[in-house]
């Protein structure tokens, strides 16, 4: 049986903390600087099977999966296009902080708007088959700048940022700084026990925690905690009980 490192309190029972040799942060001290994201790292755009690569007649790469599969921004940046387009049906373009531009097409639902700031690994759309498409997939392109008319090889673009296709969302996120533990871990839309489940993790998963907040108190595995971590690549919150760290309130992570 796995021996848990986490304290059984919400980080407030000093005796337990001292006995374990741990000093978790409380909500009042949660303003520490977040883990810095490496400039040359990126995030997986979506899960699925690569059905068409980059070639002279195809500017991007196609990743096929079921309708509704989440699509994520591969890097931090600003949304410069979010709307409809001939061929794509619906599309999104993001200008990243390094000047490059990524493009996402054929989704059935867009979740971001023009001029919106997005984080690497943030949920931006859901996969569809709109426009000139034979089935649900993401058409993903990478461009050197907003002025480029020809896309660069997206496989090389992602590889240079630590993401190799096919990929698992969350695995290439910058600042991947924690790992979940346990099976059937539910990711919820909000830090509440009655919030919708957006995903269920089948096993330990490397994740980037963007921020944490106080929510419903959860008792599980012999522990109680009201702290929840927001995982942008998964589009929701996980109770900190299932983040593999001894502190109930994660150090170095801002409060949402």
Can you walk through the features of this model?
- The protein is mainly β and 256 residues long.
- The chain folds into two domains: 14-35 and 177-242; 49-159, Glucose Permease (Domain IIA) (Distorted Sandwich), CATH 2.70.70.10.
- Helix content is 5%, strand content 33%.
- It has two helices and 17 strands.
- The chain has helices at 14-20, 154-159, and strands spanning 49-52, 61-64, 70-72, 77-85, 89-96, 101-105, 109-110, 117-118, 123-126, 137-143, 178-179, 185-188, 197-201, 206-207, 211-220, 223-231, 236-239.
- A seven-stranded antiparallel sheet has the order 1-2-10-6-5-4-8.
- The radius of gyration is 20 Å and the shape is elongated.
- Mean pLDDT is 81; it is low at 1-40 and 172-176.
- Beta-strand percentage range: 25-35%
Shape: elongated
Can you tell me the residue ranges where pLDDT is under 50 for at least 5 consecutive residues?
1-40, 172-176
Q: Major sheet: size, sense and barrel closure?
A: 7 strands, antiparallel
As laid out across the biggest beta sheet, the strand order is 1-2-10-6-5-4-8
State the CATH topology of the largest domain: Glucose Permease (Domain IIA)
Mean pLDDT: 81
N-to-C order of helices and strands = HEEEEEEEEEEHEEEEEEE
Total number of strands: 17
Integer count of domains: 2
* SSE-based structural type: mainly beta
CATH class of the largest domain: Mainly Beta
Radius of gyration: 20 Å
Q: What CATH architecture of the largest domain would you give?
A: Distorted Sandwich
Q: Number of DSSP helices?
A: 2
End-to-end separation: 33 Å
The CATH H-level superfamily of the largest domain is Glucose Permease (Domain IIA)
């Amino acid at each position: 049986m796995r021996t848990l490192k986490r304290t059984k309190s919400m980080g407030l029972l000093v005796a337990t903390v001292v006995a374990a040799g741990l000093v978790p942060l409380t909500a009042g001290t949660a303003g520490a600087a977040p883990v810095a994201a490496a400039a040359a790292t990126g995030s997986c755009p979506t899960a699925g099977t690569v059905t068409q690569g980059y070639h002279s007649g195809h500017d991007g790469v196609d990743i096929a999966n079921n309708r509704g599969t989440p699509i994520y921004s591969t890097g931090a940046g600003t949304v410069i296009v979010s709307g409809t387009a001939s061929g794509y049906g619906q599309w999104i373009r993001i200008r990243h902080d390094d000047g490059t531009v990524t493009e996402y097409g054929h989704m059935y639902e867009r979740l971001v708007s023009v001029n919106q700031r997005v984080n690497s690994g943030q949920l931006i759309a859901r996969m569809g088959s709109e426009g000139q498409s034979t089935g649900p997939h993401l058409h993903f392109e990478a461009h050197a700048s907003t002025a480029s008319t020809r896309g660069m090889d997206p496989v090389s673009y992602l590889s240079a940022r630590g993401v190799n296709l096919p990929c698992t969302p969350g695995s290439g996120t910058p600042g991947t700084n924690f790992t979940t533990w346990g099976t059937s871990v539910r990711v919820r839309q909000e830090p509440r026990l009655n919030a919708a489940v957006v995903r269920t993790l089948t096993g330990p998963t490397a994740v980037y925690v963007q921020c944490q907040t106080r929510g419903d108190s959860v008792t599980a595995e012999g522990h109680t905690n009201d702290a929840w971590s927001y995982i942008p690549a998964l589009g929701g919150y996980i109770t900190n009980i299932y983040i593999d760290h001894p502190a109930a309130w994660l150090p170095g992570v801002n409060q949402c």
